[in-house]
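All the exercises in this workshop are built on plain-text protein records. Sequence and backbone structure share a record, each on its own labelled line. The structure tokens are whole numbers drawn from a learned vocabulary of backbone shapes. The record below serves as our worked example for the rest of this section.
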Amino acid sequence: MSELPFLECPERTAFSDECYSAFGRALYTVQQYEMKCRALAALGAEIRKDRTLADDVDFTKAARAIWKQTLGANISLLKSYGLPAEIGNILDKGRIARNEIAHGAGLGTEDCIETDAGRLRILQQLQCRMRAVAEADL
């Protein structure tokens, strides 16, 4: 493996590989959730305009603008389409869990990963967050 400047990778062990592969799968899943929210927000915005989407330059511009928005902004847009409050709350819980996974799940885990109790705690926290994302992704 080549050396990366300014980045010290922790030593690889079977224990660390188990946790880091779970982090990788979680990151993939939350990225898919975010993409679906973006697509729904873009489509919903156009459906509300009550026009056809085929070869529409305005749709392409609007979709690109929505695509650049944050997940929170896209969920707010989805909620503005008149979704029941319960669904909006589920989407928000998924957003919060997504942000925790994407921005902090792996931070400070290097020492914990090498113990059974530490790995169990890390994987349980990740599982709890993924449950919220999975519920929002339905």
